[in-house]
Please model this.
Amino acid sequence: MEIRFQNSPAEVKNMDTQLLRNNFLIQKLMTDDVITLMYSHYDRVIIGGVKPVSKTVSLANENELRAEYFLQRREMGIINVGGDGQIIADGQTFSVNKLDCLYLGKGTKSVSFKSADQNKTACFYILSAPAHQAYPTTLLKKENTISNTVGSLETSNHRTIYKYIHAEGIQSAQLVMGLTILEKGSVWNTMPAHTHTRRMEAYFYFDVPEDQVVFHLMGEPQQTRHIVVQNHEAVISPPWSIHSGCGTSNYGFIWGMAGENYTYTDMDAVSINALR
Model:
């Protein structure tokens, strides 16, 4: 498991392209038959991915956690962005198909992942955060989520937001998690932009065509930077940073937060004309 520490706004504004990518971009999350994990010191979240192809892949304990098992003091949200799959948690099997979400509460001892068809493999995106309270393991199908469509084709941001783990959905100790899908002809996400110093956030991009990219915007509103992101890559967003993006095609992305509060709507808006 890779470990990354925090960076201050003063440090980030002096970073070149490669330093920005080294500190905030997470690549190769979907590697055949392994679990890839990155521990961030922004609110101590763990960002990961698992692509089970030829075998069932189990979640091992990590020495850095100093725990008896991975979720002894943690919770986890998992969203599948690939083919049909299964997650086995403490002996119970859950069918988790594309854009379904499984929440695992604090105290879940064993977790493993498998694909229903190795020719159409599942790709499970993982976000985990420390938990002070145990909540029940819960599966939520995409069709049962709370969703709303916002934006317009005229402003290139016509998109549907699906909420999974939040105050009115799956209950958790601090994780907030969902996804956004842009309509054809729309390429902008989260614009107008915002920050929320109470919570960090991570974006995981999916369904980005092979020959296309997303220009992910980050940094303080008056010190913006960009990272070029490809399919199945994630970006860490510090609490003080905007998080937005513009693609060369439409795409989807999973957003996930952890931190001081649990309020999805708690954000500090930044007007478009104020960005620099």
Notes: The domain at 2-274 is CATH 2.60.120.10 (Jelly Rolls). The chain has one domain: 2-274. The chain is about 5% helix and 40% strand.
